[in-house]
Amino acid sequence: MNPKPLPSIIFVPGMKPKPAPDVHGEQVWRCLVEGVRRVDEHIADSIAANTGCFELTGWTYLFYNETRDIALDMPSIETALQTEGPSEADRIEARMWRTRLKQLSYLLGDVLPFLIPHFADENMQITLGDVRRYRRNDDNIGRSIRRNLRAPLLRAWHADRPVLLIGHSLGSVIAWDTLWELSRVDGVGGHVDIFMTLGSPLGQRVIQRALKGSKEHGRRRYPDNIRHWINLAAIGELTAIDHRMARDYAPMRAAGLVESIDDYRIYSHYRQDGELLVHSEYGYLLSETTGQLIADFWSRYY
């Protein structure tokens, strides 16, 4: 009997400069395995013993032409790894009224874009600028970024490996666009078994209007190579302010293009220099909810 092919876990990070892909990938991998370990030690050991299953698709150096020193993040990563999960103080802080007020303003800006200049802070302005640059494909940057993700997907499909594709923040948009091009432009026959989005802006109207396929009609608006879509949004998120993918992409489910779309809310305990950063990829991966979902994928296919 031929052994089952090794699953492929592909991680697409979000925006802002990141450490070099090998260094960054090592820390993302540690948090992913630890998140699984918190719910199932046996499966975590199985994943950890198969390091070849994981690949981080680095794209931020192409975009920013700089890398982040991992030393800036290591104390926070180590603390998060040694902390069992969100405390009551973390939960209260994530629900603070100031955060809720900012979320409301972001939601209003998504519905009424002309309001954005009146309340956008510096961080939001930078983020919107980065999104516009990616969408415009300045200097062919969008196409180059997607090419980086196409390669591991095609390798996995060629080897008939089950695929868990994880997109964090803007990485989920890059993943969506890549999957749409592969299925609707190139006609590649592979599929992603689980498309997992973390802190994703795919629920925002301004993003939806710019996605690959957004100008198409009917089934062609969506990729046809996703079996299951799992979306996770942290309480207190500003990037994933509209986290109801099952509602927004219901036509995709109705058309039979995806078997399921499930939304989950989590609390994060990741802190950088004492500040709670609910959008951090490390916090998402250390969540027991994320860990359970990854464990379910692994046990189903390996």
Radius of gyration: 18 Å
Largest β-sheet summary: 6 strands, parallel
Low-confidence segments, ≥5 residues, pLDDT <50?
A: 108-112
Number of structural units classed as domains: 1
End-to-end C-alpha gap: 14 Å
CATH architecture: 3-Layer(aba) Sandwich
Helix-strand string: EHHEHHHHHHHEHEHEHHEEEHH
Helical percentage: 40-55%
User: Quick one: CATH class?
Assistant: Alpha Beta
According to DSSP, the number of beta strands is 8
CATH topology, what is it called?
Rossmann fold
Shape: globular
Rounded mean pLDDT score: 90
- How large is the count of helical segments? 15
Tell me the β content: 5-15%
Strand order of the largest sheet: 2-1-3-4-5-6
SSE class: alpha/beta
Q: Care to describe what's here?
A:
- This protein is an alpha/beta fold.
- The protein has one domain: Rossmann fold.
- Helices cover 49% and strands 14% of the residues.
- The protein has 15 helices and 8 strands.
- The chain has a 6-stranded parallel β-sheet, sandwiched between helices.
- Strand 4, helix 11 (205-208) and strand 5 (226-234) form a beta-alpha-beta unit.
- Helix 1 crosses helix 15 and helix 9 crosses helix 10.
- The model is unreliable at 108-112 (pLDDT under 50).
